[in-house]
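Forum > Structural Biology > Help requests

Title: Can anyone predict the 3D structure of Tenascin-like?

Hi all, first post here. I have the sequence for Tenascin-like but no way to get a structure on my laptop. I'd be grateful if someone could post the C-alpha cells.
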Amino acid sequence: VVISEGCVTQGDSSDASEGGKEIDLTAGSSLVLTHKIKLVPSGFGSGSGSCGCEADFAALRERLERLEREVSSLREKCGGPEGGCCTSKESKGAGCSIKTETDECPNECSDQGRCVDGKCVCFPGFSGPDCSESDCPGNCNDKGRCINGQCVCDPGFTGPDCSENSCPGNCNNQGQCVNGKCVCSEGFSGPSCSDQSCPGNCNNKGRCINGQCLCNPGFTGPDCSKRSCPDNCNNRGRCVNGQCECESGFTGPSCSDESCPGNCNSRGRCVNGECVCDEGFGGPDCLEITCPNDCTDRGKCVDGRCECESGFTGEDCSQVSCPGNCNSRGRCVNGQCVCDDGFSGSDCSEKACPNNCSNRGKCVNGKCVCEVGFAGQDCSAKGCPGNCNSKGRCVKGKCVCRRGFKGPDCSQCEDGMTGPNCDT
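Reply #1:
Sure, ran it for you. C-alpha cells for Tenascin-like below:
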C-alpha cells in the first residue's frame, strides 16, 4: 500500500522504538509472520486538511485483513509433520488429516475475494464470478485503486474514474485545471499559479519579481514595453522610441552636450557650444566659405575665391601683379613681366624679333627692318646696296648677281641682254 507522504509521521517507520509496535499476527501458532507497522496518532489527517489519509489507511487495513486470511490458509495447508506442507491437495490441517473441499473457485477469485464452497465471496469494491470486476467506474482506468467502490487515484490524476489529469496544488485556487495544466487567473502565473504575474509578462524584456517588472537595460514602463533613453535625456529633452529629442541648445545621445548654431553645418566641431570650423569654412555656424589667408587683406573673398585689388594677384592676393597679367605670354615676377620667347613689351603683348634685330634695326610685327648697311633676320649681317634688288645674294656686303644681271646692286642687265628679267 502506498501511503501519501503527508500521512506518515516523521522518523524511520522501521524503528519500533518510535511509537511503532511489533505485533504477532497469530499468537501461539507454529508459523509466525511479523510486520512492523507505524500507526498514525488518532485524529491525524482528519478535518479540512485531511490530504486523503482515510483512503490510504482503509487500503492498509484491507491488505492486512487479506494477509491474515492468506496466513490462515497457509496454516491450514501447511500443517504437516515438522511444519511441512501436505502433499495431497485434498488434505489440510495439523497432520494433514483434514480433507479439503473438492470445489475450487474460478481464477482463485483473482485475489480479490475468498473461496467458500467453490464460490467467490468478493472483497468490498469487487464483484463477478471471479471477483475480477471492479465496483469503481471504469475500473479507475488503471490510474488508481478501487477501495470500497471508490477510486483512490494515483498522483497526477483525479475524477470519479481517475480519467482526468490533475494539476499541481490544485492551481492554488488561483486558476482552472485544464487537461492537467493550470490556466491561471489574471495576476498569477507558474505551473501551480503560485507566482504573481506581471503585466504582459514584461514583454520578454525584463524579469517579473513579486508582481512587478524589473526591466532589462534599454527598456522601461510597467510592462517594459517602452524603449528607455540614456540618462533620461538629462531632463534636457524628450525620449521618443528610445532616442532623445533634445531641447534647443543641447545635443548628444543623452542631451548632455551644449549644441552649436546649425550644428556647425557638418563643417566643424562643436566645442563647449562654439563651432571650431574645418579648413575652408568660417562664421559662427561654419556656413561661410573662407579664402586662403583671408586674401592677405588685398582683396575680397567671394564664394571662397579672392577678388584681388588692382596691382595684386595670386590665390591669396599676396603677389604684386603685372600689366595685363603679361597677356598669358610670360611670368609676372615682382610686378614685371618676364615674357616667353617670341614676345616682348611691358605686358608681353608685342611679338619679338630675333636677337632684338641686333640693335641694327626696328622690330615691326615680329620682323626686323634693318638699318642701311645691315641685313639678315636679326640685322646682324652687313647689307648690300638696294639689298641686291632681290636679284642676287648679299655676301659679306657685296652682291652676287643672278645670271643676266650685273652692277653693285644687280640692277643692270649684262651686255647683250635686255627685258625685265634680262633674259632676252
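The longest strand covers residues 21-24. Residues 1-5, 9-33, 39-51 have pLDDT under 50 and may be disordered.
Shout if anything looks off.
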